[in-house]
AcrR family transcriptional regulator (Naumannella cuiyingiana), 192 residues
Amino acid sequence: MIDAVALAPPPVADSTPAGERVLATAGDLFYRVGINRVGVDLIADTAGVTKRTLYQRFGSKDGLVTAYLDRRRHRWQTHLLSELGTADDPAVAVRTVFATAAAWARDNPRGCAFVNAWAEISASPEHQALAVIREEKRWMRRLWRQLLGDDRLAESVHLLYEGAQTLYTILGAPGAFDDAARAALELAGARS
């Protein structure tokens, strides 16, 4: 059912131990505090490196934001594909995606890191991280297409998925992912 090659997350760039500390620190701060509210001084100090080291590894704060989102995208996609395994029943796959997203959301209370980043950086159309954000959303759409075998249905289910994330985070709706999964399965059944 799933073409693992077509959905394989792109590899992430290797980094030095100092670069890994910077990425881990920046990722935590960007997600918890916000990209625009976190400066390179704080990241460097918290990671125990110099600003020079940060700039040598990532080129700029924008480069660091891009690397953070690229790593997060890789981690999410790898995790989700692992949870899906070789699911060959579309209904099981749909439930698995929504259940995995619900578990992920419980551990990430500020919601979707990609939506959060978009809200902060989309006013800068030249920001290199925008491509990573768009590609994450396109990847989810491709995943839904593979799981459901129908472009229009995949688009509708993707909307349910994105809506569940928003309702879970903003309204604290604990059943948002379950409700979205049920609606997705109803849509899929109506199209059969």
